[in-house]
Amino acid sequence: MAQLRDLKDELDIVIPTIRNLDFLEMWRPFFQPYHLIIVQDGDPSNTIGVPEGFDYELYNRNDVNRILGPKASCISFKDSACRCFGFLVSKKKYIFTIDDDCFVAKEPSGKEINALEQHIRNLLTPSTPLFFNTLYDPFANGSDFVRGYPFSLREGLPTAISHGLWLNIPDYDALTQLVKPRERNTRYVDAVMTIPKGTLFPMCGMNLAFDRELIGPAMYFGLMGDGQPIGRYDDMWAGWCAKVICDHLLLGVKTGLPYIWHSKASNPFVNLKKEYKGIYWQEDIIPFFQSIALREECTSVHDCYIELANKVKERLGPIDPYFEKLGDAMVTWIEAWNELNPPPPAQTATVAHPNVAMKN
Amino acid sequence: MAQLRDLKDELDIVIPTIRNLDFLEMWRPFFQPYHLIIVQDGDPSNTIGVPEGFDYELYNRNDVNRILGPKASCISFKDSACRCFGFLVSKKKYIFTIDDDCFVAKEPSGKEINALEQHIRNLLTPSTPLFFNTLYDPFANGSDFVRGYPFSLREGLPTAISHGLWLNIPDYDALTQLVKPRERNTRYVDAVMTIPKGTLFPMCGMNLAFDRELIGPAMYFGLMGDGQPIGRYDDMWAGWCAKVICDHLLLGVKTGLPYIWHSKASNPFVNLKKEYKGIYWQEDIIPFFQSIALREECTSVHDCYIELANKVKERLGPIDPYFEKLGDAMVTWIEAWNELNPPPPAQTATVAHPNVAMKN
């Protein structure tokens, strides 16, 4: 397989945090060539220490308010949902986002895993959401499509999202944490797979990469934390919205490799309080997303997302006024996105058609 | 996790073959307690050697003709599709079927893999086709449902099919075999997963187990080989039909572990001839199966399969007269199934309602 690009000038690493970023020391060999966007949550008067030698920009709540003005209301406070502010201000094509309690994991052989390199491989190779390949990623080294895989589908579709996994502390909800306090994930599954079209999945924001140009505006992490009735559903919300839109626009979502080492479990008693309402609400939210059909006229992520916001207000609003507010925030998010990411000027006639240019 | 039953009296091993079954020697520690059904393909005057100590019944073409009479026309000749005759004559609840060029594989640790034990574990634990679990099988040891997985779906659904994989020679089509003659599968992926509802997959018959009571009548391997315009699509056909019916009846299909060691590639030049028409036809067959909606009135596998046979004739018939013949054979197969597997006598009023009985 051909060597893939390293995306040094095309990818930002987004890190939400409330503490010194000492965890970056372990990632230095892998992250140092990249630009970091640090979103400081909580008290803006705190100083976040960043190890020397990293190239970064840091935003605290005062910066969010200054940059977005009244639209800052769509960015959550005291919840890792604030990370999506980093997606908004990035100017790069690709995003990798990681939590500050995630460390470098090891393969069973003992080799340290370059998580970012695997995410880049996942994003730069196609996805296969229209038919299942039993030998997993057909674009991995030493793998291919199996007998019976339709040839017309082997070109695959562009990959929008790469969802990585976690060794040690699994991403469990508060209930499972409380019931199985000692469970650790020790199973290294050497696979990347495309989540089939039409299938929802629980997207975790801990170790996640995506193509900002393809799916960025759908990567809104919702209203969580301070002043909201719910927390810890930020990444889930983004995942459900993004997956429905990827399915509609024929974009791929992969999950599996790379693993990171998740060092410590969050407090399950605190988590239960945050998740409490979500446990009930998701029983209605999931059927809602499973039954959504976006109009054919929605041909961009922006269109799809606005349509989704309207449906959220209409169909989830009756469950709780929170969903009215969330639907409004989704619209505000798109307005903020458009403000900070104005569409590029229309192509002039002197620009060659890309299909022609590619023949060189 | 609780110790699962070994199903010694509830499972038959079905092996289609044209040669002496020396490969059973390697499987002796795992297979010897089970009953084998050997389906001899090709010249019935040949003698198939079976290593001593195995409990088996063997059927050759003369037996097939004698037992099924005119209905024998639905059983393929000179193609591994003949294996489904074994499913028909079995009286057990579970079937494991394996090819005679498949040997015991090893885990990366060097431990020999008891493929049958893993299939039984897959069949006796629920499936989760309605939502994707990113940590794979939530019923595996040391695993569970991740955060965001709806609680109402955690009971899972009954598992109908367990599809195992292959180390060494991957199950490639003739084209991929010819293009990549040296490719070997060395990737041991330590996972079992449910194939989501609504997603088709290429089912390989080499290393396959299923619950005969739940899905048996859909496990027809079609008309292949001698006198037919196509071969090597027998298991694919069964997989497409069975998956559509499992989705309709809310049954689960798992793929992944266990691996077997596939010892040798079949001749790709011969395979190309067999697969040639299938390469074109599957481009129509897949959309056909993807778009099928079985009527709500179809509440048994029999009902679903007859409905499917009618749709095959109606919608695939126009592609080639072969599909008319195949649709008829599907009906014949069900007639043969009913003849050899008469429905059990109706339950009497003295039998407690299962939900009540379960409360004891």
TrEMBL record, chains A, B:
Catalytic activity, reaction form: UDP-beta-L-arabinofuranose = UDP-beta-L-arabinopyranose
Top-level taxon in the UniProt lineage: Eukaryota
Any one of the GO BP annotations: UDP-L-arabinose metabolic process
Known function: Probable UDP-L-arabinose mutase involved in the biosynthesis of cell wall non-cellulosic polysaccharides.
Residues bearing glycans: R147
Name of the featured protein: UDP-arabinopyranose mutase
Family: Belongs to the RGP family.
Species in which this protein is naturally found: Prunus dulcis
Listed EC numbers: 5.4.99.30
Pfam families tied to this protein: RGP
Any GO MF annotation of the entry: UDP-arabinopyranose mutase activity
Keywords: Cell wall biogenesis/degradation, Glycoprotein, Golgi apparatus, Isomerase
Annotated site, Required for activity, chain positions: R147, R154
InterPro entries attached to this UniProt entry: Nucleotide-diphossugar_trans (IPR029044), RGP (IPR004901), RGP_fam (IPR037595)
CC per GO annotation: cytosol; Golgi apparatus; plant-type cell wall
Annotated coiled-coil segments of the chain: none
Localisation per UniProt entry: Golgi apparatus
